[in-house]
Design a protein that fits this description.
The protein is mainly β and 441 residues long. It has helices spanning 2-10, 13-16, and strands at 25-27, 30-32, 44-46, 55-57, 67-69, 72-74, 86-88, 97-99, 123-125, 128-130, 142-144, 153-155, 165-167, 170-172, 185-187, 196-198, 206-207, 212-216, 229-234, 239-249, 264-269, 287-289, 293-298, 307-316, 326-327, 332-336, 349-354, 362-371, 390-395, 398-403, 412-414, 418-423, 432-440. It starts with a helix and ends with a strand. Residues 1-18 form the signal peptide.
């Protein structure tokens, strides 16, 4: 894996030796309360609150947070029903758990008090009152669970949609799959304004709208039906999405030379991850990504088996926490779009500020990587046709230009301070960008 190769080259491994995990820790804008396999083929954790290259590998049987036990939700190790701190290794406790080491940074706490599941309307966020779901500081519609937002929130669902709604000169009284790759959706305004959410398909496949859960194949474990073609979609929404298969038993291929010609599961992500077609007892590998993950399940017209289940979770991505925008720190450093070099998110609008600083004469911004949504040849570079995904640079109040495609800005220096704005639309993404900054003294 690229992560572990880079980590071996650049990480201060010696500093990590003998150290314990620090929970929670931040990595690439995501917050982790347990070991993770993000960007790695081995579970790992950071030994610093914000990952700076120091890490340790975790035992393969590591805690999963949050987990549910007897209807209570735990975000750290607990001593509930035991005299030693323990944790579950799956989101829904079955019978499999591990004991937490006495020296671990995670301590036992009481179970969380569950918040109401529904949105609280109206609610106040950052001084603004919202009477419906909002996309403020988020790539997807969300709501507060309290009258004044205090950190407890939920993604909005089809229950927050408006019916009927109008889209493309048609009126809809229920969810539709039009123009959305077969996934059901609905509008949150009477006239569609790009403010929409996925709907629960109620059958095989569909968008996974909860932040964690378990999916079972139809009729599991009795046996799945014939002629199934189902897709489940899991979106990270500014965080990290993970899918992990438990039981897995499909019709075997019956041949050493043919890959799953009958029934199969295939997991793919927009960052290029692809498990290939899996059947028999050849369980798909765990997949973690900050891009959309799709699980595709196909069966033929005869012979079936027990089926499968997989657990999923989305960590990070809370409103206002995406690693996008803000004032840079230090007199030099690097900034990358969310998820780089994997795909950035839709509906992003954020600005990095590089203000003038005492003791410095100016700041220089240099783009080292740049690949935004593909546009026609005549639209590349600073052409005003950059209306989809683009980067803008401001020198004080003056806009220096707008860039898109694969033609990024030349190095820019200013004594007045600079601002770099990144905006994306609701469709089509690419790998993003990276720029370095340096203050002169």
């Amino acid at each position: 894996m690229v992560f572990r190769t880079l980590l071996a080259v650049f990480a201060t491994v010696a500093a990590a030796q003998g150290q314990s995990c620090v929970f929670p820790f931040t990595y690439h804008g995501g917050t982790f309360n347990s070991c993770t396999s993000v960007d790695s083929d081995v579970a790992w954790c950071s030994t610093d609150a914000v990952y700076v290259g120091n890490y340790v590998d975790c035992d393969e049987r590591y805690c999963t947070f949050p987990f549910t036990y007897h209807g209570m939700t735990f975000t750290t190790c607990t001593m509930y029903d035991d005299d030693r701190p323990w944790c579950s290794i799956s989101p829904q406790y079955g019978s499999d758990h591990v004991y937490c080491s006495d020296g671990a940074a995670v301590l036992s706490v009481d179970a969380e008090v569950d918040k109401p599941a529904g949105c609280h309307f109206p609610f106040e966020y950052n001084g603004v009152t919202h009477t419906t779901c909002t996309m403020a500081d988020s790539s997807d519609p969300w709501c507060s669970l309290d009258q004044v937002f205090d950190g407890d929130w939920a993604w909005c669902t089809e229950g927050d949609c408006v019916f009927p709604f109008e889209y493309a000169n048609k009126t809809y009284d229920s969810c539709t799959t039009d123009d959305n790759d077969g996934f059901a959706w609905c509008s949150m305004t009477p006239l569609f304004e790009d403010n929409w959410v996925y709907c629960d398909s109620g059958g095989c496949g569909g968008a996974l709208t909860d932040r964690q859960g378990r999916v079972e194949s139809p009729n599991y474990p009795v046996g799945y039906p014939d002629n199934q073609d189902c897709k489940w979609l899991l979106q990270p929404r500014g965080g990290h999405a993970t899918i992990s298969f438990g039981d897995f038993n499909l019709e075997a291929s019956g041949s050493l030379f043919t890959t799953c010609p009958f029934d199969y599961v295939q997991v793919t992500a927009l960052d290029g991850t692809d498990t290939g077609q899996r059947c028999g007892t050849d369980t798909p590998a765990n997949v973690s990504s900050h891009t959309d993950i799709t699980v595709h399940f196909v069966t033929d017209a005869s012979i079936n088996s027990r089926g499968f289940y997989f657990d999923y979770s989305v960590l990070g991505g809370a409103p206002g926490t995406q690693a996008c925008g803000g004032e840079v720190t230090g007199n030099s450093g690097e900034v990358a779009s969310s998820g780089f070099p994997a795909h950035y998110d839709n509906n992003v609008d954020c600005t990095w500020t590089l203000p003038p600083r005492d003791g410095t004469t100016g700041v220089t911004v240099t783009f080292t990587e740049f690949m935004l949504e593909h546009v026609e040849e005549h639209e590349l570079g600073q052409y005003t046709g950059c209306i989809y995904d683009f980067v803008e640079i401001f020198d004080g109040p003056n806009r220096l230009g707008r860039w898109c495609g694969d033609k990024g800005p030349d190095p820019v220096t200013s004594a007045n301070g600079l601002k770099v704005r990144f905006k994306t639309d609701a469709h089509t993404v690419d790998s993003g960008f990276k720029f370095s900054y340096q203050y002169s003294t």
